[in-house]
Amino acid sequence: MKYQVTMCYPDGDVECGELFDTMSEAESFAQYQISCYRTGGEVLHMSSPGDYPLSSDADNIDYSISEIEE
Q1: Distance between CA atoms of 70 and 53, rounded to whole angstroms?
Q2: How far apart are CA 65 and CA 48, in angstroms?
């Protein structure tokens, strides 16, 4: 059994192509993706606050993990 992550961003869902051996690995990957999304928003805001205001979208990110049989 393998696990696949689907990220649920405010503007749509993205199915990640990578398969994970354990649920723990899949959860760690999803948490890392959420962290990257938040960090990216902060960096854009710091570089040009008027063009890229901070939004609360990062608080609305979720993920789901599906079991995939091989």
Answers
A1: 44
A2: 35
> Which residue in 37, 5, 36, 2 sits closest to 22, CA to CA?
2
- Taking phi over 0 as left and psi of -120 to 50 as alpha, with beta for the rest, 2 belongs to beta
CA angle 61, 67, 70 (to 5 degrees): 135
The structure tokens listed for 62 are 């979720």
**DSSP conformation class of 55:** -
Dihedral sign, CA of 5, 6, 9, 14?
positive
pLDDT in tens, 50-68: 777 776 666 778 999 999 9
pTM value > 0.90: no
